[in-house]
Amino acid sequence: MHEGADVFLTELRLPKTLGFGAERERSWNVIAFGDGDLSAQQATVTLAAKSGPGLEIEIRPQAVTHTVGPGMPLSRFVNEAEIECEAAGEAKVLWTATIDAPANADPSNDTLTRATRVVCREGNQELGEHREHSEEE
Description:
By secondary structure, the protein is an all-beta fold. 0% of the residues lie in helices and 65% in strands. The protein has no helices and 11 strands. The strands form 2 sheets. It has a 6-stranded mixed β-sheet, with no helix packed on it.
């Protein structure tokens, strides 16, 4: 059992699938929801991405800080992600969001990981963006 205040992530929203033309880029918001117990405190969520070949990924900003605490609504940590398809093909992006704060008694609930399938089509063909998924999936 862990004692003391804790911060944790409850959900990570991002597209399951993205499809767009090769040599094009797409931007959207990746949203992590975080909370805290016992006392209000500043918490920082850092977003990272790993991908297969053929994709260039940029995250702005990589870290976002907000106040979390009991009795407060869930805090939204928003990062803008941009993916550029460098050539036609398909790749997976593995996203990892991690929350941390000065008082963080239980690190086992600090990280959420999700994946996005990216399909880069020849020319300007658009697949569209399939709806987001969260921790249940």
